[in-house]
């Protein structure tokens, strides 16, 4: 009975050679189920499945059935479709399958139990092995022929055992004694072909070739069994048969695991697995057989001191590459030899053979020579029909052997992940589970030892300048000898490209001989050197993994975030050794490991672990890393001490150490530690040192280089600058109860008041300004502006702040200097040409800071120019600058101009009237704001009235659409003008012609005309007409009362009316006529005192001036032709005279102190009063005569006459006290 534990199938063989198949269930726990039975498998007449020609080799004329003496199950590693092999008594081998679809590519493709047995059929048969009478070992193809051997040579197999490519037959055909036939796969290169590396057909020939060994045996063989290799030898090679993601292999039994290893073949595993052994049980006792591997045969050849011919024959049989690989195994002592070591003499001879050009050949160009190896095949010759190929470098067999040996050592782990998750969730989107190393520490130790042994052998040859290194002595310093190429490219050549072929492109396709022999030798040694570096790096990676496992990788990985943890689990050994991601993850793992020693709850000091890392994996942990973690340890001590002086001393020592390795320091974490102990000198110095180290040529500030290159350099510096910026942000955001963030331990809490925060902020800024790094200064200034440290910026910044603010605040930089007042004044006029350039809100922020800077440094003139530009700037789309803000800017500009005038009286002349200009612009802006307010009120009133009128019109007018459209158009126009008015500052002409006049803002028109001293109209028609329009507008809205109110409000602003701004004659006549017309029409009752008192108020109580205006009007008959109008004006004159008398004598009598104040004596005051009385009395007398002349009824005239008469009597009467 034979059980296939992999497929869960039971096979039985009866005495009559009947084979039965039983299915044990998919999981192997089901009941027995017989699925097939075959009786005629050993019958030579059965010609099924390829048994015709092969079965006819021996005993073709015989018709009897040969009994089956042995059955053995085949593992899925040997075949996916053949499941059982049966050996007959005549030595034939029958290969059987339990599947009905033999040959299907999908059959049991996974090697699992998805397809259950359904039949038993013969797939193919193989004849009995050829055995000569001498029982010698024969190399070469088996002779397949149809002739029968003599009866004495017919095998009589009484017992057989097949296991993973090894077949043992117990033959009882000899008459003297039994013999054992040992059949193994022939691993040598077929004669007449090229070596394996350069012949595509070598593999197919090897698959059907076998070696037959014959040895005697005492007694009758009863049973044969394999001796399993010791676990310490197989563990390092077990992963060689693992598939990616298939972790079930570790659960298999030792027998199955050993068989899966043996299937790989001796060439691939002779560096890891010892010689194979079998035990034979006979009726005479036990016998153990040891099967020599090819490397064992080579060792015996080297030990025997035999002639060089045998060694050449060995190289010819196995190929130069395979033989050289076996020489390396012996020279570097990589073979497991059952607790024995390779003798030094053998190792030295193997090293010499590895480097002997007579055995391994020399590097050549493909097509330029007959063969890489000088040991050419006898059948090889010149073929005139052969196509001439392009010359391609082909390295020697030694290089190929090194590639084979290195690839076989690394292949078991190269493309597999180094970490796995245990206890992970079944769902792919989950990141649960514990991170553990895929390989055991013992396995990694064995593999590391082998890699280091091979690397040390190559390094010793290099240091001694022996072998290949000695041949290129003197030319080894060619450019790029030790630097060209990368570990990743070497690994691709090891595992992807054909061995011995350099994948570098040729300089020219048409160049027949691109390299000389010396250059080819140099190229080969350079490749060997890169492979050596790859081996060294791989060994260091394995040691690092061992140390991580010893410190519980799961605990170290807990400090990683989800993304980094996922990268760690997906990291392959190839990536760990060759990629930047692997380097970064290794750095993070080492950091976590060091934190275990020097963290808050550290278990030791840096020296405890650094020595092991520096000695074992210097490429992962360099001297700079040791210096860095030494500094971290100092910081840990500084954090724990309560002594301020001791803390500062330790922090300074850490800073000194980190200053030696600016590029290797982990700035983010280390500066957080310095922040924790409030040592901000290091927070500034370390990032700036690293910025200089990553950009030594200052490409970030070089405008003459490629833009992409400059951006990359600036980005590298930016990452360093961010640390200083973050420190400022942390201090700015901290409250009284602060929490210091750190990546190495728990947060530390402490009290930090505003005074201390301000102190540290000033310290950081002062330290930063001292560094001569223009790019950093710009970053610092921008950061301080962003986080609201403008006051500290203006106080502590360096002289380069002005160019920074100018550049940031304008597309066309305002070239005002910061070196002194004179320079700024000379450059200031350029601001007027740029003041109306478009400026964004962000740019305005920088200009405001620039103005504040100039004010802070008492450069008032330049500050006023910047403020003027801010006020007059044009807004871009979506701007939010209001006229009130512009007014504020201009007011500040005027203030700065006044300060400049006070500080330097000659500044007004030197600056060309800046103060007058600014005050004029401020006045114009006032008009603009007033117009804006009027427009807003107008729109509000119009919308209200429009809403009410639309309802009334809809009820009264059946066709109201035309009127409504006109009103809507007016409102729309007003809104457009309002929007345009707020967009920028307008000139005074624009305000008058485009806004004030079209919207009938006559009061504002008067203000504008008065401000501009309008003089183009000699007769003052424009001013008079504007006053008339203003009065008419008031009359419409509120009658004479409203007109008088407007006159009282507006008139005093223009009095005394120089330049015709207050035409009293026109105003007076216009009001009197309007009053007479409205009284006559009965529209309004107008008092006699309304108009004259309004005129007196407009003239600021200058009653005499008003009386003179009335005199002129009454004297001109054409101006006042109507009697009623003249009578009304006479009543107004009476009111003016009374007001005059009241103003003069009422003040004098009511204020005695005022009367006698000053240089006037009592007599002088009496003289003045008498003159006024005389004028009033004379005027009253004259007006009485004028009243008498009016041809009007006495009822109208007499009251006016009596009024003048009473006034005259009062004036001319004696004074009352």
TrEMBL record:
Residues 37-66 are annotated as: Disordered. GO terms for molecular function: structural constituent of nuclear pore. The keyword Cell membrane does not apply. Pfam families: Nucleoporin_C (PF03177), Nucleoporin_N (PF08801). InterPro entries: Nucleoporin_Nup133/Nup155_C, Nucleoporin_Nup133/Nup155_N, Nucleoporin_Nup155, Nucleoporin_Nup155_C_1, Nucleoporin_Nup155_C_2, Nucleoporin_Nup155_C_3. Residues 396-1098 form the Nucleoporin Nup133/Nup155-like C-terminal domain. Belongs to the non-repetitive/WGA-negative nucleoporin family. This is Nuclear pore complex protein. The lineage of its organism: Eukaryota, Viridiplantae, Streptophyta, Embryophyta, Tracheophyta.
